[in-house]
DNA sequence: ACAGTTTCCCGTAAATGC
DNA sequence: TGCATTTACGGGAAACTG
């Protein structure tokens, strides 16, 4: 039953949410003697656990319109649903979290040619099944770790004992996440801050290793979220609310508070930079430096803006309009220069929204972010170092040796 | 097969959304000779149209726990799904919109006692089936009109030729909507404004009649929504964003612009009132009066606040913080007295949110609504009259003459 | 009690039907 | 083409379940 084979397109593990439609396509990689033969393909979900395919899962292969005459079939509107076991025995993966369980779809076909019965079977790359979008970040973590650390196409037990990643490998993957989502990766200084956050001072050694647990399971000391949950919340914030500003490279973002002060302390009064909150998920703040008549330096950071605030007022408008007020005095913007010395309107001007609304009989009204300023202690700066070079990403090179057909594409709204 | 009967609880038509669970309960109104008889009840959706019950629809009756020993059965987790007709013939109600189509659930049971076969059957009050919450307002309109204008328990053809309502009947129902949703009904002045909006000057005559079409199908002249859609958008706004302020009776709300000016013109500078937008769905604005050094009167209305703005900043905080700014001058609140003469902080003070956030290392920041004031023409006031007295609501008095059991309760998240 | 997980369902957007 | 209606599914919250 073994047949000669061809390479398939590169494949990545996917995330599928129960109850949400996904698509998969299978192609036969050799031409069969009789072309019109009705070759039915059946798609099934792995038996190991509690999901089944809700919708019609059998379809006949057909000749691709555009193509070389290959037989192929596309399953659309597939949907996964959880099986309810009445006598509570779920699968065996009790130790792993849902997003660490890897599943797979199988495709089978069987036909007889010249008295010979031929069974064809193949299966998808690993799948993570989630039931709510709130599990998506966990699912992505698994997909990233798997892609980063194994070449095995179908190692469903991967998270039983997941290998460590070197910081050099990992930092590159993290930078890609930003490139993908936001068209701009992370620079060395930003990666260095992330490395120190994850590893302490060891980060300077690029082959220092990061465990799966440290990356996405254990909480950051003193916080209620893991490193990846924190980073992903920032990716989401950028994707939904900061895209133009991020693309313009106006957000330094990943800077420790110490570094921030070191950078700002010698700058002109009113110089500021933007930094992601380390204490809360999905927040961005800005810090500006002020020098009083004695020449004493003072740093002020605004309460971080999160998605709810940013959907009321885009960041560029916040930058334009932010004012500090002291009683009875005309409010004033403390923000003059984006670090190192770019005039604010030059950095953000193109992204400002044109205020005036057209609602004639009415007086237009806008929201202005305001702070009541009080006195504040001066912080001490600390030094900082720079990170290691990136490494080329590994890619799946899926040559299926035994199988005559393979999955061509598979898509789900949760995968890119 | 006719059996003696008892009254059931009052019933109201309901709205059911496809794919969303609902519950219904049926009770047998006489005691059967043999108590332990397994009396199975089957629930079906009316055949006239395109829905079916997705979930298990047959259940045995049981003796109620608490009760007089009546047999009853409760169906939970029922769900409606639309039937797809392949050869496109849907039902016949082509002329009516979905929310005007009335449906019903039927309940049947059959048993034999002493050689006699007895069939029991009953059906629910009319149901409106919707597929998206965006149809809820339309559904409510139907339910209100039905309840208001017929005593027939199951007239599914009601909207084939819906009767008119007198303004006196309708105005009372509208006031109830506000009582139910927001704990405060409408006063005469508010109802009068609504009556004039719907009927012009005829509203003063309380038995003037309103057609179903005028109430909820035709658009208001010059607008893209019907009277009820407009009113319902305000109910929603109150429910989600204005509840405390509405309960305090600080929102006059339904005042024509003419009346508004008539009321404010002789008041002190800085007197304001709150009014719902008539030009846009779900908006609220405030208008204040200003008198310049010549004694000339000027009215200013702010661009209406809608749910998106109000979810960024609650109304009470807007009232507290709203400022008008002229270049280089300290911003000032133009709002001094809630009409007629209540100091602003007295009217809204208890509802202000305490600003200062606890985020220590950061400077707290709030959003302040600001308008850039320009010169504005002065409007001319017009007079206004007051409305008619209310009338007692009619109630369903459901005595089922032929049936031995009836529906006791039926619930769906869309019904109160 | 509680954390991890799933279910529920509104509300927006997109797709579909007429 | 435009409007009415349904479908899709993210996201917040409640319900479930060991």
UniProtKB/TrEMBL annotation, chains A, B:
The keyword Transcription applies. GO terms for molecular function: DNA binding; DNA-binding transcription factor activity. The keyword Nucleus applies. Belongs to the transcription factor STAT family. The chain holds residues 315 to 730 of 730 of the full protein. Keywords: Acetylation, Activator, Cytoplasm, DNA-binding, Nucleus, Phosphoprotein, SH2 domain, Transcription, Transcription regulation. Its main location: cytoplasm. GO terms for biological process: cytokine-mediated signaling pathway. It is found in: Cytoplasm; Nucleus. This is Signal transducer and activator of transcription. Residues 246-341 form the SH2 domain. GO terms for cellular component: cytoplasm; nucleus. It comes from Cyclopterus lumpus.
């Amino acid at each position: 039953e073994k047949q000669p084979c061809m390479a398939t397109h590169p494949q990545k593990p996917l995330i599928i949410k129960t109850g949400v439609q996904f698509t998969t396509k299978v192609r036969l990689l050799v031409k069969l003697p009789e072309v019109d033969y009705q070759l039915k393909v059946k798609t099934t979900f792995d038996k190991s656990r509690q999901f089944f395919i809700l919708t019609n899962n059998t379809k006949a292969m057909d000749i691709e319109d555009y193509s070389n005459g290959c037989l192929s079939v596309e399953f659309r509107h597939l949907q996964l649903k959880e099986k309810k076991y009445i006598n509570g025995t779920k699968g065996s993966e009790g130790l792993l979290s849902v997003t660490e369980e890897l599943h797979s779809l199988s495709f089978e076909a069987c036909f007889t040619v010249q008295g010979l019965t031929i069974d064809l079977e193949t299966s998808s790359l690993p799948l993570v099944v989630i039931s709510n979008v709130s599990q998506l970040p966990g699912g992505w973590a698994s997909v990233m770790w798997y892609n980063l650390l194994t070449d095995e196409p179908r190692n469903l037990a991967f998270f039983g004992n997941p290998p460590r990643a070197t910081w050099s490998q990992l930092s590159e993957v993290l930078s890609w996440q930003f490139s993908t989502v936001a068209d701009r990766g992370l620079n060395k200084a930003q990666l260095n801050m992330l490395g120190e956050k994850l590893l302490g001072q060891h980060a300077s050694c690029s082959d220092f290793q990061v465990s799966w647990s440290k990356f996405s399971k254990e909480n950051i000391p003193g916080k209620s979220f893991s490193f990846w949950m924190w980073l992903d919340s920032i990716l989401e914030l950028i994707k939904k609310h900061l895209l133009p500003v991020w693309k313009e490279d106006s957000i330094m973002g990943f800077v420790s508070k110490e570094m921030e002060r070191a950078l700002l302390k010698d700058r002109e009064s009113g110089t500021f930079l933007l930094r992601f909150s380390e204490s809360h998920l999905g927040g961005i703040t800005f810090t500006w430096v002020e020098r009083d008549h004695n020449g004493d330096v003072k740093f002020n950071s605004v309460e971080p803006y999160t998605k709810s605030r940013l959907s009321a007022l885009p960041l560029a408008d916040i930058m334009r309009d932010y004012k500090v007020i002291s009683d009875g005095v005309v409010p004033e913007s403390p923000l003059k220069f984006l670090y190192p010395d770019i005039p604010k309107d030059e950095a953000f001007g193109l992204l400002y929204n044109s205020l005036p609304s057209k609602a004639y009989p009415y007086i237009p009204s806008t929201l202005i972010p305001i702070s009541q300023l009080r006195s504040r202690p001066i912080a001490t700066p600390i030094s900082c170092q720079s990170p290691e070079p990136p490494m080329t990403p590994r890619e799946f090179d899926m040559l299926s040796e035994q199988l005559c057909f393979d999955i061509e594409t598979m898509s789900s709204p949760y995968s890119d």
